[in-house]
Structures are given as structure tokens and as C-alpha cells.
């Protein structure tokens, strides 16, 4: 395994984003449709937060069934993305080593980190991206 490999080599670049003014119902649909677990929240070109599927699950019964519950719609109207998203994010530049990012995810118990350059979101790296990299290295 290369100790100098950087996160730009494994990050997800086709990132689905939302704005803080989007509805939680839209977030749930994106999570399910795209089989993803993290959505960066971007306002006016600047990343302001990260919404995870587990954040959403804490509010609803979204993952218990494929059927829609009326309670979900009610709860989604009570809260906003801005209220439940993670703020004060740890972000890393694309030249950060994969080893450093893996250490950060383990130590801080994150599952995704935004990759930014000049305050612009370039991608995200997730624990799944790291697992894929590790599997490829072991083959």
C-alpha cells in the first residue's frame, strides 16, 4: 500500500448536494434513490453542513419500511435541514493522504469528510470509499 496516496484518488466527485432551505422529505428521497448516506449542504457555493441518513432516521421511521408513514411528513414539517445537519465540519484538501483521512475518520468517529479547495466542494470521502481502496490494495 502506498503511504503517499491522496484522497483525491478515491473521493466521490459526483456529489449530490442540497441547500439548507430544501425540505427533509427531499433529502429522504435522495438518500433512498441514490443509495447514499451523506449529503453535503451547500448555500451560495459554500459548504455549510452535512446531513447524514442517520440524522434523518433519528427523526423518523424512514428506514423501517418502504411504505410512507404520515408521521414522517408531520415530523419533516417540524424540522429543517438547517436544524439537524452537522455544522462546524472538518474539511480536508484533496492532497491529504488517505492514511491521514482514515485516521481522522477513526479518531473523530466520522463516516464522511468533505474535500474542499479554496472553499469549494470538490467531493466527499466516506468510510465506504476507504474500504473500497483497501480491498483494491489487497487484491
From TrEMBL:
Pfam families referenced in this protein's UniProt entry, alphabetically: CBS (PF00571)
PROSITE patterns named in the record: CBS
Full protein name: CBS domain-containing protein
CBS domain sequence ranges: 11-68, 85-139
Top-level division of the source organism's lineage: Bacteria
Species per Swiss-Prot/TrEMBL record: Polaribacter marinivivus
Ranges annotated as spanning the membrane: none
Keywords recorded for this protein, A-Z: CBS domain
InterPro entries: CBS_dom (IPR000644), CBS_dom_sf (IPR046342), Diverse_CBS-Domain (IPR051257)
Amino acid at each position: 500500500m502506498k503511504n503517499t496516496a491522496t484522497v483525491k484518488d478515491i473521493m466521490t466527485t459526483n456529489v449530490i448536494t442540497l441547500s439548507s432551505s430544501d425540505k427533509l422529505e427531499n433529502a429522504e428521497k435522495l438518500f433512498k434513490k441514490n443509495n447514499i448516506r451523506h449529503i453535503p449542504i451547500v448555500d451560495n457555493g459554500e459548504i455549510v453542513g452535512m446531513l447524514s441518513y442517520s440524522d434523518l432516521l433519528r427523526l423518523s421511521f424512514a428506514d423501517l419500511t418502504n411504505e410512507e408513514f404520515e408521521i414522517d411528513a408531520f415530523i419533516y414539517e417540524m424540522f429543517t435541514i438547517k436544524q439537524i445537519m452537522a455544522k462546524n465540519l472538518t474539511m480536508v484538501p484533496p492532497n491529504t493522504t488517505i492514511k491521514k483521512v482514515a485516521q481522522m475518520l477513526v479518531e473523530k468517529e466520522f463516516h464522511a469528510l468533505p474535500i474542499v479547495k479554496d472553499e469549494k466542494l470538490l467531493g466527499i470521502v466516506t468510510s465506504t470509499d476507504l474500504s473500497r481502496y483497501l480491498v483494491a490494495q489487497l487484491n
